[in-house]
Amino acid sequence: MLQVSESQVRLGLSAPDKTEAIRIAGRAMVDSGLIDPGYIDSMLGREAVSGTYLGSGIAIPHGLPEARDLVRRTGVVVVQFPQGVDWGGGEPARLVVGIAAKSDEHIAVLQRLTGVLGDPAEAARLGNTSDPRAIMAVLNGEAPTAPVSEPVAVPIDGDSIAVTAPLPHGLHARPATALVEVAKRFRAEIAVRHGGTTANAKSLISLLRLGASGGQPLTVTASGEDAAAALRAIRAAFDAGLDEPVAAAAPTEEPAPRAVPADLDYDGRVIAGISASPGVSTGPVWKFQREELTVAETAPDPAAQHRRLDQALAAAAADLRNLHEEFWKKAGAAKAAIFKAHQELLDDPEMVAEAHALIDRGKSAGWAWRAVYEERAGTLAQLADPLLAGRAADLSDVGRRVLRLLAVVTESVAALPDHPVILLAEDLEPSDTAKLDPAKVLGLCTAGGGATSHTAIIARSLDIPAVVAAGPSVLDLENGRAAILDGDGGVLVADPSERDRGRAAEARVKVGERREAERLDRYKPAITTDGKRVEVAANISDPAEAVQAVEAGGEGVGLMRTEFLFLQRDLPPDEEEQFAAYQTMVRAMNGLPIILRTLDIGGDKNVPYLRMPAEGNPFLGVRGIRLCFEREDLFRTQLRAMLRASVEGPVRIMYPMIAAPAELERAKAITEAVRRELNVPPVELGIMIEVPSAVMMADRLAREVSFFSIGTNDLTQYVLAMDRLHPVLAPQADGLHPAVLRMVERTVDAARRVGIWVGACGGVAGDPAGAVLLSGLGVAELSVAIPAVPSVKARLRAIAMADAERTAREALDCADAAEVRALVRHRFADAGGVS
């Protein structure tokens, strides 16, 4: 059993900051023969990724997993800083426990630390003791620590402020997390009162349990030496919206189930819900059931149960990190952020402390953990606000993830059949949905949930048709019963008639035939019936997709997002790594042009080595070309790699988020300086048109570049002042809004006057109606997702450019996006599915 010796305890030290404190602990670990010196840098790297402050004046710095080979043997050292070191956790760290782990032997020591965490008086004593044996006795299990007590409501005696829960959805996960982060910066005890209930402002779950909906009054009380500063910071955070988009009052309830469109005309039994993800599928239904997890209520050895719980929590956290990384690659950072939120739920101090307290009373680790998370999930589920209640599924997901590692007996029940099915469930947890194979799941239909639920978001990202909030009657359907799931209409049709089946089958056949024809003709150019050509290129995000773009019929790459090289890592890519990636893509294009966009990362992405502060509105902050200027070293390195790769083939370089001529002038000057250093031929330079100021200055900007590329996603949200990820406003943030189309028209006119071409690389370019209208407005290149390349080319080959131009002019005079779409649908009803 791992023991802490007197030589591994250092008392009475001081350090000016966290970095030096970690170095001191690291040198002590080297002296104790635990690590090689290089491991200290990994400990600093870990701190940049995620803080290691536990609470009660205790921090546990340790290295990154990839540096494990620098660990000589498993062990810990304890360094005491009686004056405290600011660890960024809201109070100074006085005990710094450096961990070197080749195995899990150190878990026992950490479990004993949990007892200290629950006893602030004991933590204070150890942080100031002059006797190393006092610390050794506790960490070696020779002296009992006070049992972890039940969470106690934070006292509300002290100064108070009145605030309002942020609109539109109140203290749900994101704003509550923002509040916790602010509260933890202060030593004061901070409480939030809503009605007759009080919550610990430093506990995410405690805040969620308040059930505070948007616009409801809250009272924040703080007591302690920095209480006044804490209240000022919290008021500022509330005024800034707590990471919520500032908006007018919006509905806090899920939208009511939509009426079934009359033209669907189903004969079978229609169960109405809410459309969560588009598409229509036909097949047998199957009820989804998770495994049954059985745990003993009591256990004879509390110490062993404490270890089991800590080990399960650590393993679940690692699993969530891996799941986040895998899903980030599959569906992007925004969708993967769900699993980041789950890590925060898992790390809730009150929930962990209460589970350990139950273990101290003789309960098993599994029983204690299940009791705690089920009680909290049940409380959340009863909240009146649907968005807040929806977080119960997230907490249950996190809880079961840990429980699977603690269960004595695990019985798998109702496994999915080998054939594809329409999946029915009371609700699906995000990790369940993320792991679904679209080839085996025809669609999803849940009794609960809502259009703003994480499950709905993930279903859309995986292109699985889904209907949610269909009510409990959907679970009465027997496994194998025939059904049609209409994700567009928001209904499930049980026992469809032969006519229903026939219409669905006919629709699928037509779609299949059309897609096969498009595949066969994918290398044909997109030339309209009256002889006008539009280039169709592909958007890609990594080297492997370059080959896929060519095989899909792409006539080049209209947008290469270089961010993949910079995300999910601790250090930036060097020039050689970038050059190898760009060179691979250029060669794969085999002479076709490729547009490489320089780095576009903002404050909404967590990139530790950039040291970017969190921003209240990252989409209006340091991102795109602004970041390149802030980190000119990274910008120059990237430009060197791009320009070196340009020797291999036709490379164009594009700058993102240009808002003014001065920015373009500076970017070009830096690029030219780098080019001269390398002595390579010039390349075509272009800019993204993403902000209204770039449109208004397009006549000036056009004289300085070879091309424009319109980023319709960002341009739409900036023009309409609507976050395209907002749960309420997102459906209205449509790139075919006449205001956006007028911006496109103005951009094309400015480009034409000086003889440069304009492309479009946002989502609208791959939209059936969007491809027609952008072409009609004079956009010469459409860059779309790889799977959409054949269909966009086929669509353009089926229309006359003259008709597209006339329709685009009429669209500019429409009132809204819905009217625009209706116009295009009517005008091109026979043009291959334009809608």
Automatic annotation (TrEMBL):
Task: Write the record's keywords in alphabetical order, separated by commas.
Answer: Cytoplasm, Kinase, Magnesium, Metal-binding, Phosphoprotein, Phosphotransferase system, Plasmid, Pyruvate, Sugar transport, Transferase, Transport
Where is it localised?
Cytoplasm
Tell me if Lipid biosynthesis is a UniProt keyword of this record: no
> Biological process GO terms, please?
phosphoenolpyruvate-dependent sugar phosphotransferase system
Q: Which residues form the HPr domain?
A: 158-245
Give residue ranges for domain PTS EIIA type-2.
Answer: 2-142
What chemistry does it catalyse, as a reaction equation? L-histidyl-[protein] + phosphoenolpyruvate = N(pros)-phospho-L-histidyl-[protein] + pyruvate
- What coarse category fits the chief subcellular location reported for this protein? cytoplasm
Q: Which GO terms describe its cellular component?
A: cytoplasm
Q: What class of enzyme is it?
A: transferase
Judging by the UniProt lineage, the source's domain of life is Bacteria
InterPro entries cross-referenced by the UniProt entry: HPr-like, HPr-like_sf, PEP-util_enz_mobile_dom, PEP-utilizing_PTS_enzyme, PEP_util_AS, PEP_util_C, PEP_util_CS, Phosphohistidine_dom_sf
Q: What EC number(s) would the UniProt record show?
A: 2.7.3.9
Instruction: Tell me yes or no: is Translocase among this UniProt entry's keywords.
Output: no
Q: Which cofactors does the annotated protein need, by name?
A: Mg(2+)
Q: Which GO terms describe its molecular function?
A: kinase activity; metal ion binding; phosphoenolpyruvate-protein phosphotransferase activity
| Record-linked Pfam families | PEP-utilisers_N (PF05524), PEP-utilizers (PF00391), PEP-utilizers_C (PF02896), PTS-HPr (PF00381), PTS_EIIA_2 (PF00359)
Q: What does this protein do?
A: The phosphoenolpyruvate-dependent sugar phosphotransferase system (sugar PTS), a major carbohydrate active transport system, catalyzes the phosphorylation of incoming sugar substrates concomitantly with their translocation across the cell membrane. The enzyme II FruAB PTS system is involved in fructose transport.
Query: NCBIfam families, from UniProt?
Result: PTS_HPr_family, PTS_I_fam
Family in the record: Belongs to the PEP-utilizing enzyme family.
Question: What is the protein's name according to its record?
Answer: Multiphosphoryl transfer protein
